[in-house]
TrEMBL record:
It comes from the Bacteria. It comes from Lactococcus lactis subsp. lactis. This is Sigma factor. The gene is comX.
Length: 147
């Protein structure tokens, strides 16, 4: 059954899966087929079909997750300014915030870094500048680069 798994792994590539994930899923499907079927007739064909269907289902599920991130409604800083300025922060929240801020800052171009600093100082930005900065930040925070 391993050659089937390896061949389908090359045909249907799931970005978040490693070789071990493909092999483990193959073992699970083989185990389920052996439990439900006593005779070894056409086990090879049934495994191939069921494993192929499982990979396609997983691929569709991953695309659905990706689409859900595309429609994500982000946190608007202007709507939550009272909560942000309240000062009720714990040390772990500060660490997470500082890490995310550094990650966002490094991912921005020099122009957008300047806009971010101006925004954090409380300077007035135009509506278009705020929109473009917000979109750049969302692109950095919700990118699919992490595998």
């Amino acid at each position: 059954m391993k050659p089937i798994v390896m061949k389908l792994m090359k045909q249907i590539r799931i970005r978040t899966w490693k070789i071990e994930d493909y092999l483990q899923e193959g073992m699970i499907i083989l185990h389920l087929l052996l439990e439900e079927q006593n005779d070894g007739q056409k086990l090879h064909t049934k495994f191939k079909v069921k494993y192929h269907q499982r990979l396609i289902d997983e691929l569709r599920r991953s695309y659905a997750k990706k689409r859900s991130h595309d429609h994500f409604i982000g946190l608007d800083v202007y709507e939550c300014s009272d909560w942000i300025n309240s000062g009720d922060t714990s040390p772990d929240n500060e660490v997470v915030f500082n890490h995310l801020l550094a990650e966002v800052y490094e991912g921005l171009s020099a122009h957008y870094q300047d806009l971010l600093l101006r925004q954090m100082r409380g300077e007035e930005l135009t509506r278009m500048q705020r929109y473009r900065l917000r979109e750049k930040i969302k692109a950095i925070l919700f990118s699919e680069d992490e595998e």
